[in-house]
Write a structure and sequence with these properties.
The structure holds two protein chains of two kinds. Chain A is 37% helix and 19% strand. By secondary structure, chain A is of the alpha+beta class. In chain A, the strands form three sheets. A seven-stranded antiparallel β-sheet of chain A has the order 13-10-12-11-15-16-14, sandwiched between helices. The longest helix of chain A has 23 residues. The radius of gyration of chain A is 22 Å and the shape is globular. The relative contact order of chain A is 0.12. In chain B, the strands form two sheets. Chain B has a five-stranded mixed β-sheet. A four-stranded parallel β-sheet of chain B has the order 7-6-8-9, with helices on both faces. Classes of the chains: A alpha+beta, B alpha/beta.
Chain lengths: 477, 434
């Protein structure tokens, strides 16, 4: 238990409103968007400056509390769940956009800035920040950096890491780190910046982020194609890529997903179709027209059931918005929504769909699949009920077998959600004991006491990590 | 069928359904739409947080603590989160049920209970008592005492909510209910016969709005039946957590309106409309399903109704004005009616509609919330007024008396020149003289 004195001390340094320790607050700050993982911290602080952050970390050290950084809590692998209790460092009140540098095409913002707010702020100056995770309306940049978040535009524009130019942060010993800069080229020494991106808050607490901006595409064409079977949709994706066309977005939804999304958005998606592809090509008008034509030709060749071109920007935007709701909309169907993040080389897409279908039948489950088809990044989502023990077992067996195949094809266990709590064992399978050892050594160098976001990415051989996870249910087994 | 086993640490009566709280997958899509989360940045004051608290009570991880009571009432019940939730979680309704739980767990003291019962169980259900009770207020305004009070700032001494309540009162006319004939005949080619649900606040505070609604309906070719016995729709009771009185009122109105020979039941109050549309769920175990379904099928908000039957624009006069539209939460979020009011506005000759930013963001009125949390309400209102001001229009249009009171007060306090009108008043200006 944290002492009353420590609470008072925190309040003195950070202000009363920035220190929460009532049970109701702790309960609501011990989860993110990952099903089944939940743990109460002992105290939650909202620093508004780096000095306050350091002050809080100092008090935490005195009290022997581990630290878990948190943004808006929309993560999908349990990265911000304080699985060992302690102190949650909520960075949402460090939310100033510090600079938009139009000469160097960069923006610098504090970690708590909401992704979409940054997008809008730079768009107002005629610039473009492409990474757009599904939760961009509320996710924070700090969280995006911690998990190396992707999004719908990943195919052409890349993910968060591709845009991070510089980071500032605080290390476990409360030393400050500043890495990278506004220089386009920078090969000086180890790439700490790249190491920190995607490190899930286990190596340091990122407080300030400088990102690269690019000019926005001048033109865009949105195409919607429907398919009678998912395999054909997968084939279309592989053929489009093979034709050397890189759309900005190539998203897939299967029938279950189409129906759930349509229940919510009501924009007339075809409920009877087995799959749909939402494809966007963007750039300068001439190549855009050419690529759109190329995409259409391929869709015709593979015999897509229907091909539509969005009437206008508003319709295109409503389609993209609809796709963003896919995961949450699937949650309509059942009390528990288990989501995975399997990613395969794109040539394997059609086979992956076949495998998902086969395993769905084998384990008698209800599965909705959607995802960033163009990236080979699929989100097969098991719609189940955590109260049904047998069903949960089958769900875990389903993922287990699927990941076995995904790894055999040279895929990865996480395309964009991170490892966190949910996928530690899968990671170990992917990178092997040697890989885990190296990661642990890096962790040891940055954080010898193990106080930064303990229990994430790999197991420290501490059975506690598992006992804290909500009864009877784990995501990754 | 009523459950006999309590759900976790809830009381048996009027507890949330476990499935309803389990439905939340915590994606956080609701967070950017929640006015109280915007105010506090505190997770427990967000829809996701509130549902998590209810779930914790249901799973016996938490008692029904005073903090949960506080959150149940701090929720504006604006339903913006319901609109934003792809999973179909209705956090506002869960909180409404928790309000009722709050009264079971923390009964008011004797005085408080007597006062609450007097207001909710005696005054509000009786149209006559309500009308009589407004008489002193009208006298207060007519005799010039209001002018004195407002200018001498006597009320600055009182609690803030009293001062605000006083400041919000529009100039009161005679209540509409006793004046309105039970049947007003259609004009021009007759298109049908509708029942008009005249809400309490409308008859007492905005008789001119509802007078215009009836004029519009008649001009559009509908006989308008306004049953004199109509009682309060029950919305204030749901909002205050008195679900039992709400059910009794609902049962009364259900029978009253089903006995009328009308094709539709129309209201010009978004709050009433939302409540009437929820009778089906509220009375689930208390009335026949078929009766409830028939009633539900007839309920329309006035703008929803006009858009559905088609506004007859022949003979409408030009109204030269630029307007912006503030969406009442209980219209856009609770009833999903967003396009129809705009469609009607655009059909009025001479009117130019300029959209404001965040048109569907709450104005901070939210029944008695605006009085209980006067300071927070002020902040929510300021955000709304900034957006309204930026449009530079002549008229701020809305469609609900709660918003109307709040916006008119805000505009007056801020010294803005904009006029605040109900959509029916605006449309009323386009009607030829009677």
């Amino acid at each position: 238990m944290i002492s009353k004195t420590a609470i008072d001390h925190l309040a003195e340094k950070l202000g009363r409103d920035n220190v929460l320790h009532e049970k109701e607050d702790l309960l609501t700050l011990g989860y993110d968007s990952t099903p089944g993982v939940h743990h109460l911290p002992e105290v939650v602080v909202y620093p508004t400056t780096t000095e306050q952050l350091i002050a809080a970390m100092e008090i935490a050290e005195r009290e022997g509390l581990p630290l878990t950084p948190r943004g808006s809590g929309t993560g999908l692998s349990g990265g911000s769940v304080p699985v060992k209790g302690g102190m949650v460092l909520c960075l949402t009140r460090m939310n100033r956009i510090l600079e938009i540098d139009e000469e160097n095409l960069t923006a610098t913002a504090e970690a708590g800035v909401v992704t979409l707010d940054l997008f809008n702020a730079v768009a107002a100056k005629g610039l473009f920040y492409p990474p757009d995770p599904g939760s961009q309306k509320i996710s924070t940049l700090g969280g995006n950096v911690a998990e190396n978040a992707g999004g719908l535009r990943g195919l052409k524009y890349g993910v968060t890491r591709d845009y991070v130019m510089a980071l500032k942060g605080v290390l476990a010993d409360r030393g400050l780190i500043a890495t990278g800069g506004k220089s386009v080229k920078d090969v000086a020494g180890y790439g700490f910046k790249d190491l920190l991106v995607g490190s899930e808050g286990t190596l340091g607490i990122v407080t300030e982020i400088t990102v690269k901006l690019i000019p926005p595409p001048q033109d865009k064409r949105t195409i919607l194609a429907y398919f009678n079977d998912t395999r054909t949709a997968g084939e279309a994706v592989s053929r489009i890529i093979a034709a050397k066309i890189i759309p900005s977005t190539m998203e897939i939804m299967d029938r279950a997903t189409i129906n759930c999304v349509e229940d919510y958005v009501k924009i007339g998606l075809p409920r009877q179709m087995a799959a749909l592809l939402l494809i966007e090509v963007d750039g300068h008008p001439a190549p855009v027209a050419e690529e759109a034509e190329g995409v259409r030709r391929i869709l015709e060749q593979v015999k897509a059931a229907e091909i539509h071109v969005a009437r206008d920007a508003a319709q295109a935007a409503s389609l993209a918005a609809a796709r963003r709701t896919a995961l949450s909309a699937l949650a309509r169907v059942s009390p528990t929504t288990l989501l995975e993040d399997a990613t395969v080389p794109r040539s394997r897409l059609a086979e992956t769909f076949d495998e998902i279908e086969r395993l769905t039948e084998k384990y008698r489950l209800k599965v909705g699949t959607f995802g960033h088809a163009g990236d080979g990044n699929l989100h097969p989502t098991v719609l189940c009920d955590e109260r049904d023990h047998d069903e949960m077992e089958r769900a875990h067996a389903f993922y287990n077998e699927l990941y076995g195949q995904v790894l055999a094809w040279g895929g990865t266990v996480s395309g964009e959600h991170g490892i966190g709590l949910a996928k530690k064992e899968y990671l170990a399978r992917q990178i092997g004991p040697g890989g885990v050892q190296v990661m642990k050594r890096i962790k040891q160098t940055f954080d010898p006491q193990g106080i930064l976001n303990p229990g994430k990415i790999f197991d420290e051989g501490d059975p506690c990590t598992q006992a804290h996870v909500e009864e009877g249910f784990r995501v990754s087994h | 069928m009523s459950p006999t086993e309590p759900l976790g640490n809830f009381k048996v009566e009027d507890a949330p359904h476990y499935d309803d709280v389990l439905q939340c997958m915590r994606c956080g899509f609701c967070l950017p739409t929640c006015p109280t989360y915007a105010l506090t940045g505190r997770e427990r004051s967000s829809p996701r947080g509130r549902v998590a608290l209810a779930r914790a009570v249901a799973e016996k991880k938490l008692e029904f603590t005073p903090t949960i009571k506080e959150e149940a009432f701090f929720c504006l019940d604006c339903r913006a989160c319901t609109s934003a939730c792809p999973s179909g979680v209705r956090a506002g309704e869960v909180m409404e049920v928790c309000r009722s739980q709050a009264h079971a767990f923390y009964p008011l003291g004797k005085m408080g209970k007597a006062f609450r019962e007097f207001i909710l169980r005696k005054m509000v259900p009786s149209p006559e008592l309500l009308e009589t009770s407004m008489l002193p207020t009208r006298l207060y305004q007519r005799l010039g005492i209001q002018w004195l009070v407002r200018h001498l700032k006597v009320l600055k001494l009182g609690p803030e909510w009293m001062q605000k309540a006083e400041g919000m009162l529009p100039r009161l006319e005679k209540p509409l209910r006793p004046q309105l004939p039970e049947v007003v005949a259609a004009r021009g080619e007759k298109r049908g016969r509708v029942g008009f649900f005249l809400g309490c606040v409308m008859t007492l505070m905005y008789p001119n709005v509802s007078r215009n609604t009836v004029r519009v309906l008649s001009h559009q070719g509908f006989d308008v039946v306004t049953p004199k016995d109509t009682k309060c729709c029950g919305a204030p009771h749901l909002s205050e957590g008195d679900r039992e009185t709400a059910r009794q009122l609902a049962l009364f109105n259900l029978d009253l309106f089903l006995a009328q020979d009308v094709d539709y039941i129309v209201t010009d109050c978004a709050g009433c409309g939302a409540a009437l549309k929820e009778y089906e769920e509220l009375l689930e175990e208390r009335a026949e399903h078929d009766k409830l379904a028939r009633f539900r099928a007839k309920i329309r908000d006035i703008s929803e109704f006009l858009a559905e039957v088609g506004l007859r624009t022949e003979g409408l006069r030009e109204v030269r004005a630029s307007v912006t539209y503030h969406e009442p939460c209980h219209l856009c979020h609770a009833q999903g009616i967003s396009a129809q009011p705009r469609q009607i506005i655009r059909q009025i000759p001479g009117v130019e509609l300029r959209e404001m930013a965040e048109a569907s963001w709450c104005c901070g009125s939210a029944a008695t919330w605006g009085l209980k949390y006067a300071e927070d309400s002020r902040k929510v209102l300021d955000r709304k007024l900034d957006n309204a001001r930026a449009t530079g229009v002549d008229i701020l249009v809305t469609a609900n008396p709660g918003c109307h009171l709040q916006l008119a007060w805000g505009v007056r306090e801020a010294g803005l020149s904009q006029e605040v009108l109900h959509l029916m008043e605006l449309l009323g200006r386009a009607l030829p003289p009677d």
